[in-house]
């Protein structure tokens, strides 16, 4: 992992101190790529990972007045202007992050994984814009400024576009969002913004960091495998809670039930069970082709911007969920209670 090189970072002493003795890994999602599963796995195994020199900060640490507060404007006046000037907010965040990174480094940790998918953006923003993380560049630029060179690796998970959008819409509709119109689905299909553009935004924001891209289809049910890749195989990944897949999108019967419960017409959804197939065959084919083009670009080296991680060495558990694997929870409140219990 190559240390970040910045021109005259204000807190270079603290950031560089952390970088020399500890690798800071920023996991930014994306949403709907089993990020919650990975975070719950790390939290459940936190003591054992700490014994191997791996620290973890997740959403319970980063959000709601936590580590990353103030990086994005959260309070505005009547005219929509930030109450606290951006330079002042970022200065406070930078001091806080550098001090806490230094504290962890002094405790002897070799790796610190910071995982928060909202760094990249939100599902709601994507659905509103009918585009894949359209504000990623601006958001990530602010986070890069706040981390001030401390991040040595950024990890992004991507998912086939037809599956990503189907999961995103199912998640949103299950929580009260309206159904998409045919015209909106057409706009998603012809959009020129794919994962390649998102990756370029990430690389531009963190030019000195190593960018590792994980394929959701390989790593979703294997948080242990994802962890090994993040730390370049430096530890033995624990197997506790390594086969629990959390926060999955509701299927068609669940969506129909939720629509009916809030007074909607469940007949507006397709009949049958299983996952909601949002796109028709032609639309799905076009989205799959776009995704294949992105994967080919990554496999060819992505212009030196990123490394695609698709496979891992097989272990006794195999590459997929075993027959006894469990799926737990689909709602945020269930997820948050579970995470709170584990730390």
UniProtKB/TrEMBL annotation:
- What InterPro entries does this protein map onto? P-loop_NTPase
Disordered, as annotated region: 311-343
Biased composition (Basic and acidic residues) is annotated at 329-343
Q: Which domain of life is it from?
A: Bacteria
Q: By what name is this protein known?
A: Uncharacterized protein
